[in-house]
Design brief:
Layout lengths: L8 H29 L4 H10 L2 H5 L13 H22 L5 H30 L2 H39 L4 H30 L12 H16 L4 H11 L1 H15 L11 H30 L1 H13 L3 H9 L4 H30 L5 H30 L1 H11 L1 H8 L15
Length: about 425
């Protein structure tokens, strides 16, 4: 538990979840723009950048083993350093003739490192903070996780566009200019994560004692126990349906939105440049997400999750209609495009923290809290990964306008399952039970 002698949560919660968000956002969203610039097709981009997200879905399989060796803090620091170095390797791989296959392979290893980091980081959050503080800082957690979106889909995508213009102006061929600009961006990511790893080696709290390595047999036995205990939890099958359906609409749009924004008008897109995408989608949009996450955290802490969950679901899912409107009318006004994205991202930020806190306080509690939260978040990512993998083929077949209408229909089950979702544990704002 968090004690008076531990560092203030504000010293480590924001930076920890910023470090968690960066690899996920870069692999899930920024990589789509990177590969689009380098001439890869939409269907291939959506499929492969979804497939490499698989470790976030199956991370529960190795979560029990993290309890058998060293500490959660150890795994957080090591995976931040490893992910940073691997982004440096990816920067070099862009210069190879087979850059797509090699870069996807490197990103797949980053995904494994990032998923391992997430298990340990969430374990620290749940073990070092009581439930009151979990609710209090959930907004900070969500805000800085998604500040990574502002930095990555905003700042870094914009910077890639800025560098591209500079390299093009100096006479470089278009492909070579994109390779050079994205190599620099991936190198910046390398530096950020390595610095965060060094910072967290000093400031992260760790109330647990380091453990020695245990046997593989013990680890497998622990995994079997964790899985069995998870599926015997009260209301677990309803909770699984809730976790999958809450983000179903988002899973479809996540890969396609940046491709839609970049596609030319004749193809049904908005014809934005990398710098415009960085400004609208990354900077303004992620800033709105940041604000929505912070406000939602205090809103939930004041009223309790049970009283607010359906409202959060509505605020999360309804604004996806923005993209259907943008696809049908293809406005060129900065205010309409930027305003629509800001509205959607504010709702996304406000509603997303409800699902995160629900998994922490209704699904995870019990003997295997860290592993069960990893299990729940893995199921959540499975939903997003599978819908993302088929989204490129679906949008190619239907066109952007019809595709985003289908997305709106996919949000309907989320409203139904949220309205009736049962609560296993009391969620009074000042409840301290785990």
């Amino acid at each position: 538990m968090h004690s008076y002698h531990s560092p203030s949560p504000l010293r480590w919660v924001p930076s920890l979840y910023f470090a968690m968000g960066l690899p996920f956002v870069v692999l899930n969203m920024v990589s789509a723009v990177l590969f689009k610039d380098l001439g890869i097709s939409d269907a291939q981009i959506a499929f492969w950048t979804s497939l490499i997200m698989w470790p976030w879905t199956i991370k529960f399989l190795w979560s029990p083993f993290l309890e058998l060796f060293r500490t959660k803090k150890f795994f957080v620091v090591v995976t931040q350093l490893v992910s940073g170095v691997l982004f440096g390797v990816a920067a070099l791989s862009l210069h190879l003739p087979t850059f797509f296959a090699v870069t996807v392979g490197v990103f797949a290893v980053v995904a494994f490192s990032g998923a391992t980091h997430d298990i340990a980081a969430d374990g620290i959050y749940m073990s070092e903070l009581n439930t009151t503080d979990q609710a209090k800082y959930i907004g900070w957690q969500g805000a800085f996780y998604n500040l990574a979106k502002l930095v990555a889909t905003g700042g870094l995508v914009w910077f890639a566009g800025f560098l591209y213009e500079g390299f093009s102006a100096s006479g470089a061929a278009s492909f070579d200019a994109y390779v050079s600009s994205w190599s620099i961006v991936l190198s910046i990511l390398c530096c950020i994560l390595v610095l965060l790893g060094l910072y967290h080696s000093r400031v992260l709290p760790s109330s647990e004692r380091p453990t020695a390595a245990h046997s593989l047999k013990e680890g497998l036995g622990g995994l079997k126990e964790v899985i069995a205990a998870f599926f015997t939890k009260r209301h677990i099958w309803y909770y699984i349906a809730f976790i999958i359906l809450y983000r179903l609409g988002e899973g479809f749009v996540m890969k396609i939105v940046p491709l839609f924004l970049k596609a030319d008008l004749a193809s049904g897109g908005l014809g934005l440049t990398n710098q415009q995408i960085g400004l609208y989608y990354g900077t303004f949009g992620a800033g709105a997400f940041l604000l929505g996450s912070l406000l939602a955290g205090y809103y939930i802490a004041h009223r309790g999750l049970k009283r607010t969950l359906f409202t959060l679901c509505c605020i999360f899912n309804i604004p996806f209609a923005v993209y259907a409107l943008l696809a049908w009318f293809q406005p060129q006004s900065m205010w309409l495009v930027g305003g629509g994205i800001v509205l959607e991202y504010f709702g996304y930020g406000f509603g997303f923290v409800g699902l995160t806190l629900f998994m922490m306080q209704q699904v995870a509690p019990g003997k295997h809290r860290m592993a069960h939260y990893a299990f729940a978040s893995g199921i959540m990512n499975l939903s997003v990964m599978l819908t993302g993998a088929v989204s490129g083929y679906l949008s190619d077949a239907l066109g952007y306008g019809v595709f985003f209408i289908v997305v709106m229909l996919a949000t309907v089950p989320a409203f139904l399952v949220t309205w009736f979702v049962p609560f296993t544990y009391d969620d009074k704002p000042n409840d301290n039970t785990l």
